[in-house]
Amino acid sequence: MRRISVLGATGSIGASTLDLIRRDRDQWRIVALTAQSRVEELAALAREFRPEIAVIGDETRLGALREALAGLPIAVAGGGAALIEAAARPAALTIAGIVGCAGLAPTMAAIEQGQTVALANKEALVSAGEVMTAAVARHGATLLPVDSEHNAIFQCLAGNRPADVRWITLTASGGPFRDWPTAALAAATPAEAVRHPNWDMGAKISVDSATMMNKGLELIEAFHLFPVGLDRLRIIVHPQSVVHSMVEFRDGSTLAQLGPSDMRVPIASALAWPARMDTPCAPLDLAAIGELTFRAPDEARFPATRLARQAAEAGGAVPGVLNAANEVAVAAFLAGRIGFTRIATMVEDVLCAYAPPAPGSLDEVMAVDEGARRHADALLEPA
Ligand code: NDP
Ligand code: MG
Fold this sequence. Notes:
By secondary structure, the protein is an alpha/beta fold. Helix content is about 45%, strand content about 15%.
């Protein structure tokens, strides 16, 4: 049996992971399951999967979790420090499925134990950048990319040398507004933004997908995961989300990974790596899909990818500032406090106003994140 922790167990990535584990129950011993506030959902998962420990990030809900799991041989804990301690428990694999920079400290705790981390939590890598990649190298940890594009690239690069790469091309669905005229975008509602045409995901990444900031964050994520240089990374819009990304080599060969738009495929690739496992996903029916189309991204309508590329070029604290400002802006949009197009302009305003020095440690990364959040909060009208 392999020991596995699922950070962010109640989320979309958590659900896809636990669905695969449920089908192959005898293979796995669950170490930790975590959530932030959804106590009932976490308790139900704990009753089913019997982890060693269940952790709720919001400490005020610890009593409710304790009550729900009373009498069971499952340790229960709450708060940020407990999330970190749970992530540091010995495990063969840790699923980093928390959303936002909030997932950084627990993910780093798993890395510092030299664990294999299946990384969905892209914001953590965007914010911490070199601090995380240096920790991976120092502690002999392994990062397996779960984000579908990066998992695709990881598969295409297997057996190849980074020096032979001409281009890495990240595909983007373009999100629900890819065909909307500029004039309509300002009035786009949260309900419209989270209704993704191809993927079923959490609210935050769905909005990021609508603004294309998701692809911007993924550009920075790819920059850290695949050391080919920023000028070899590019983005193409591919509305069908069948080709999950591709790598072109110096000899003119392009390798691509194709699959259904179901996160259980890349998650399964990480769970079984370096082997393969079955998934319940329907086989790819290319005749039914009929056409795969591609087009250049439109940065006039969706400026987020330009901002992210500039942040990656600047390096240092800038990607962390971009990420934090975006997290605040997306939350404000979902709460009905700002309009859709204000998300990107708010990120740009914070990037202009706040330029802290490059962080060299986890604490300094967290300080950059907090500073950028304060700047972004100050741009919001009082709730
Ligand atoms: P969800 O919102 O569905 O789930 C987020 C999970 O994190 C939940 O378990 C949630 O707990 C927990 N959480 C939220 N806030 C905190 C916090 N402050 N501290 C600790 N835990 C917290 O998100 P997704 O599953 O969609 O996304 C997770 C990550 O994976 C994101 O970084 C996203 O970008 C990435 N990703 C997701 C994909 C997808 O298909 N969903 C695809 C590729 C990448 P609770 O339920 O209690 O709120
Ligand atoms: Mg992705």
